[in-house]
Structure formats: structure tokens, C-alpha cells
Amino acid sequence: MVKPRLKQYGKKQRVTYRIIAIDTHSRREGRAIGEVGFYNPRKGQTQLDLLAIAVPLKQGAQSTAIVRDILKRAKVIE
């Protein structure tokens, strides 16, 4: 099963995240199927590829809680 989740980048105290589509059995820093967005909590920036996010969600993928909150703020899902 494919799941949208966050992949951590950057140093301590300067963390940024990429929103990726990844198999549920892979580890957090494992090989991603595809990158679908970017999230910077320090600056509050979010960049999403809406088409790439919609495809796994329509196929029944369940996103993590944090990614779900990011998608709700961007009004992708309700």
C-alpha cells in the first residue's frame, strides 16, 4: 500500500520535509516512489503537486496525520 508521508531533510533545528509517496513497509528515509510536495515548518511554506497527491488518495491510500493536516490547510481534502 502506498502512503503519503513526510521525509525529513536538513540539520537539527533546521528541519524541512518533503512529502513523498512511499510503500507502508519502507522506513521513513527509504526509497520513495515519488515526491509530491514540500513543507517548511519554520517559514510556513507548503508546495504541493495536487495531481500526484490525488492519485494515491483515490486508490485508497491513507495519509499520516501530519500530512492529512497539511492537505486540509491547503484545502485539498475536507
Short description:
With 78 residues, the protein is α+β, with helices and mostly antiparallel strands.
Can you lay out the helices and strands and say which pair or pack?
Blueprint: E1 2-11, E2 14-23, E3 34-40, E4 45-48, H1 50-58, H2 65-73
Antiparallel strand pairs: 1-2, 2-3, 3-4
User: Mind telling me the C-alpha Rg?
Assistant: 12 Å
Order of helices and strands: EEEEHH
**Strand order, sheet with most strands:** 1-2-3-4
Overall helicity = 10-25%
Low-confidence stretches: none
Structural class: alpha+beta
Biggest sheet statistics: 4 strands, antiparallel
Proportion of strand residues: 35-45%
**Count of discrete alpha- or pi-helical segments spanning 4 or more residues:** 2
Number of strands: 4
Global geometry: globular
- Give the termini separation: 22 Å
Mean pLDDT: 87
